[in-house]
Amino acid sequence: MSLWGLARDQGQALPPKQQAELDTLIEAELRAVAARIAALIQQESS
Question: S-S: 14 plus which of 9, 18, 26, 32, CB 3.0-4.6 Å?
Fold first, then answer.
């Protein structure tokens, strides 16, 4: 994340390999958040 912030602050993009790794991490986090929300909704409706 620090490399991403540095690149962003300098108006640059991450190298493709690092961007792909970051994208993979973001996708995994989004899936995890969706799963937690679904579990909370399921608990509330039970």
Answer: 18
The residues spanned by each domain of the chain are 15-46
Contact present, 18 and 3 (Cβ < 8 Å):
yes
Query: What letter would DSSP give residue 12?
Result: -
Query: How buried is residue 22: exposed, middle or buried, by Cβ count under 10 Å (0-12/13-18/19+)?
Result: middle
Q: What is the pLDDT of residue 3?
A: 84
Does the predicted model carry a pTM greater than 0.85?
no
- What dihedral angle (degrees, nearest 10) is formed by the CA atoms of 29, 33, 39, 40? 150
Residue 4: closest CA among 12, 17, 30, 28 = 12
